[in-house]
Sequence to fold (868 residues):
Amino acid sequence: MQQRPAEPFVSNFAFLAPTLPAVAELGLFAERYLVTDPNSALYKLRLLVEELARHLALRHGIPPAHLFDLLKELRRRRHLTQRAADLCHDLRRAGNRAVHDVRDQRGAALLHLRSAHELCAWYVAAHVDPQVRPAPFRPPPPPPDPAGDLARAHEEQRSLAARLAALEAAGEAEARRRAQPRVLFSQTALAQLDALAEPLRTPLGTALGRYRDDPDAAVLRAFDQVADGKFRCLLLDGGHCAVVAVSPHHDVHLVSWLGATDDAQRWVRGRRVEVNAVLGSIQLYGEPPPAAPAAHGLLAAVSDDDLLRCGVPPLLVPAVRALRRPEELVGLGSYLPQEAADVLTAVADGQPLEAAIAEAGLRRARLAVDPADFDTAAGHQATQRAFAELDDRTFEEILQAPIEQWRVFLHPSQAKVVRARAQGPVRVLGGAGTGKTVALLHRVRFLVREELPDPADRLLVTTYSRTLASALRRHLQVLLRPDELERVTVSTLHAVARRLLNGAGRRFGVVSEATRDACWDAAIAREDPQGAHPKAFYLEEWDLVVQSQGVADQTGYFAASRQGRGTSLTRRDRAAIWRVFAAYRAELAARDRLEWSDVLHEARQLAAAAPPFRAVLVDEVQDFGAVELRLLRALAPRAPADLFLVGDAHQRIYKLGTTLAGCGIDIRGRSTRLKVNYRTTQRISAFAFGVLAGASFDDLDGGVDTLQGYRSLREGRAPEVRAFAAADEEQAAVVARVRAWLAAGVAPEAICVAARTAYVLRPYREALEQAGMRVVHLEDDEDEVRAPDAVRVSTMHRLKGTEFSRVVLAGVQEGVFPLPPPKLRTADEAALEDFLHQERCLMYVASTRARDELAVTGTGRMSPHWGR
Fold:
């Protein structure tokens, strides 16, 4: 019987190569030396331990030290288990003895090789990737040519020595950097830097960059008469300074505030920065004026201990006890740490205490908190919501252009969604301004860097409109490295479908509106000359029943659901209607044209056979109908982290609703709602919610979604609503409103004037231009749209996915908003109700584009439903 050839030997340490290549090489050399030079093998294993220890120390910010001391410190901080520490010391001692021992240590070397394999397997599972499962240990075979192998080993040893020297140099450089104080920037300071005019922003940003790179070289001056002695003044150019909090051990510097030097003393006087003794996070807060306790206060039901669990500093508990009304809590919010203000606002709105604390990601510290240990507290999730340690790339980009805050700071509810280890599709709901798109963008980065690191895994980021797709692409360009961005396709779903068909050799043309209209006229004239149903009925029945359900023939139409359609049909009615539909299809085929729904159907069939993406992430999913959702399901194979869908049914302005489950997308147990509004003030949100009052909204999967519990972090000004007797008066008022904002220092590009249609918008645009203002229409070329010195004008539909500091909604009057139904609309009450529902959603979308101020104007009688 012929003997099977032995399988080629694979190094026991090969599983380390992707993440710890230097350790893998040391293990390989130890295996090769096992027979020819076992003492060298033992020494290589000692070096392996040293490399693992150095790698682990760098991960946790532990400075370099002698190996014995380093292992002791790692064990003290519990980064090594007792078993791992014992293995490390055994290998260290064996390697030290091998340097001076001349005996044949082959047996001992094999035992220690097995121990090193156990150690590396533990290290990868505990500190790198618990999913890695290394093969069982196999004794390495003797080399076929000891002399030649030894020569090669010596050459490899010299190469390894050079590489280790380079690694040591890099480690020393990293250690020197870590020996300097860590510099963190508060969200407030970065926002203040962004708000500076360009002549100041660049030099001040450059000076802060120098301080970040070498904080020990900076001169920090103490303040007079401050409550907290940790604050220092860092003088900058142009009469400006930064307020820096220096930790008790001088190992963490917190850039907390930026502004005019004359204002710094006033800002810092009542401020404190401390490590919260309950949570273990760093908190920056102020001391409000004293107030008398309220007998029946706003938060009387919350105990003092629970207030501390909410993140309230002990010094501010009396101020919380003095609150009587919700608006007083808004005022106190400027003194509270952000996480505390967030939780208390949620509780005051009626959310259960435990749910609010969990949503904010707060919990008691597991170990005793050292109030002087700012270094440990800097890693706390709540700290990272307020302070950020910026990497070189991000800081360099700050010097070149203002930094979007969302790139650096995430709310715990967003961070939880971003890093979810999902076993299937994930749905994220949230009202306008709650950071759904931010979560999606960070989810992309998480997937390409951690969850799906294989370069062969391609990702699709898609949405309904080209405008939103362009915005997503721009954001990802600053969030991802170039190599990461290469793995991500950002495109509308229609463009993806077209590429799939073209790639399969399918040539087609999409029917134009004029040709489609002609095809319908011909089909109806031939099959329904008596006009049993109006043309509008056929159009809606085709779109909302036939195409949305993928109906291909008369039998399918008989079985199709017509839920939500107002006109009931008998089987005979359906047969007659289908003859019109069949004639319409024949008219399209004669012209070699397809509807977009047909394109999507064919693309789904191609994608189902060979899914082109590993994961698909969808923004504004509420604007997709059933045809699109079925294609989305087919674009990625069913696997963990396959689909990530974000949306808000309150912003559905294009299509009737459908359910995810009905389209093959199962989100059970993987759905999240975001409730904190970061964009819009409370008063603007209240105005927008009023537009939707009384309407019902689905949760995209057959349930009901409400705006209950959604809250804004700022009170703000009430929207200004004004009606004018004549159109020229309204246009003059819009110009005056924009001019006043500009005079107050608002950047032109932060202002937008919008109207229902381009026709309605035109006179307002012309009035602004005649007043000498530069104006850019958001329908124009993208490069022009990004002009930094022009006021924006837009249709309301085009506002989707944008935000501005100040917004004017003009022409909001009877006869314009809601727009009268198109002349082809049927009198079907259900269809008309759906149309008006979409109009209300459009007003909600337009209103919530404003971050700080909103003005609504009209001529004559304001629409009773839209301009209140």
Q: What stands out?
A: Residues 146-179 form the longest helix (34 residues). Residues 1-5 have pLDDT under 50 and may be disordered.
